[in-house]
Amino acid sequence: MSRSLRPTVLIPAIAGFLLGITADILADYLAASGRPVLIGLVVATALLLFLALIYRERRRTTGRFGSPVVIRTLVDRYNQSRHGLIAVVSLYNPDRQSPAFALTSTERLTAARELDYQTLRLEESNLMVLITAVETHAPRLTHCWLIATQADDPATSSLTYVPVLEEYLRKVKGLNCAFHSGEQYTLVIEKDDALIAERARSLVDRIFQEATQPSIGLAENEMIADITGGFRSIPLGMVMACLDKQRMVQFMGTHYDEHARPTGGLIPILFEYRAEIAE
């Protein structure tokens, strides 16, 4: 059966056609002899509208990702990079092989407050993934939103490391985009993952709305939300906020060897969500 002859399409169309006829008959003030015809049309229209509602309830909306876009080369960066990026700053954690691993908690906090990215060795930490994600869009990037987490202790708040990260991206990576960060883009760490997921979804949705305002002027399809960083349910909330064909997500992937161990460099992968309606 062709798409145009499906019940979900055909029944509402017939109902609308009959409703139009009914309206014309009412407009012509049918004589008393025509009332049975009018009643029949009204009944048929009501019945088909009822059936249309039933079929509508039976429709199921499913989603799938479109063909992923993989950014591998410098040419890909220029062609696929976006003007706006939303990303989550994970809590700074240096690699075991890095000299920064020996820093005490107090020394880490001091270096962060003094914007001393050289001591923190950011590219030798878990923030390397985020740095690569941002750098991928450097050719076009004009606005970057950095979502952070906040706890009672600054040592366990990724918000503490956002200023030094921005300083590193400007001074070392040469980014001159506008950074949007601070408490208004911060998720307070909760004990309930359900709250975190919903607040992450709400925050990302608000950022998209903010970006499309005249003061910034970005279209939603000119932005990308990176879902690689963050803990627990933050990426889930970000994905939920991007279930729209105009909103794309990015994941920093890699290759794996025969033992399922990561190997090689990071690969930015862009995903597009598409909704499908099934009978």
Structural summary, described in words:
This protein is α/β, with parallel strands linked by helices and 279 residues long. The chain has 2 domains: 56 residues; 214 residues, no CATH class. Helices cover 40% and strands 20% of the residues. The protein contains 9 helices and 9 strands. Strands 1, 2, 3, 4, 5, 6, 7, 8 and 9 form a 9-stranded mixed sheet that branches. Helix 9 links the parallel strand 7 and strand 8. Helix 1 packs antiparallel against helix 2. The two termini are 12 Å apart. The relative contact order is 0.14.
Helix and strand element order: HHEEHEHHHEHEEHEHEE
Structure class: alpha/beta
For the biggest sheet, the summary is:
9 strands, mixed
Structure summary, number of beta strands: 9
Strand content: 15-25%
Indicate the mean pLDDT.
82
The low-pLDDT segments are none
Q: Identify the overall geometry.
A: elongated
Summarize the structure.
This protein has 279 residues and is an alpha/beta fold.
Q: Key features?
A:
alpha/beta; 9 strands; 9 helices; 2 domains; 279 residues; 9-stranded mixed sheet
Strand and helix map with partners:
Blueprint: H1 7-27, H2 35-58, E1 60-65, E2 69-70, H3 74-80, E3 84-88, H4 105-113, H5 117-120, H6 128-136, E4 143-150, H7 162-171, E5 178-180, E6 186-188, H8 193-211, E7 223-226, H9 234-241, E8 248-256, E9 262-278
Parallel strand pairs: 3-4, 3-7, 4-5, 4-6, 7-8
Antiparallel strand pairs: 1-9, 2-9, 8-9
